[in-house]
Design a protein that fits this description.
Blueprint lengths: L20 H13 L12 H10 L3 H10 L3 H12 L3 H18 L2 H43 L1
Helix pairs in contact: 1-3
Length: 150
């Protein structure tokens, strides 16, 4: 069976408002269950070591907390209590990590990923527009068309 695990994006700030923590959470939980596949967690990952150093948390302590606290909001609260970083320090770290991530990612891949995300957003809007607007018009149209056949 093929491993389909894929962690969240590096720039995702859903957990504790810090870039990369959501991705690291997914990888920690997958490492715990043995489903991490080719992804790296903890000391093997340059991203994770940067984030863990900023938080002042070891990879083992973080993995245990990520497994024990299965709610991302509560995990984020635990992280913020544990690391005791100010919002200014966190926003500076997010900015630096974003810059580092974009400089590491090849420009072609970065541009391709941005186009993919824009296309997904456009498709979601189109489907929403189609189903909200056309749903009300088509039944009337089909009713009129079938009524005119008689």
């Amino acid at each position: 069976m093929q491993n389909t695990f894929r962690p969240r994006d590096m720039l995702n700030k859903e957990v504790a408002g810090i870039c990369g923590v959501a991705r690291m959470t997914d990888k920690a939980r997958a490492a715990h269950t043995g489903e991490i596949g080719s992804y790296k967690y903890g000391a093997d990952s340059e991203q994770d070591t940067t984030i863990l150093y900023f938080l002042g948390i070891s990879a083992d302590v973080f993995r245990e907390a990520a497994v024990r606290i299965d709610n991302d909001v509560k995990l984020g609260e635990w992280i913020l209590d544990y690391c005791e970083r100010s919002s200014t320090e966190i926003s500076t770290f997010n900015r630096e990590l974003r810059y580092w991530w974009e400089s590491k990612m090849p420009r072609v891949g970065f541009s391709k990923r941005r186009r993919e995300l824009a296309l997904e957003r456009k498709n979601r809007f189109f489907l929403w527009y189609y189903f909200t607007n056309c749903f009300w018009y088509y039944p009337v149209y089909w009713f009129q068309k079938s009524f005119l056949r008689w």
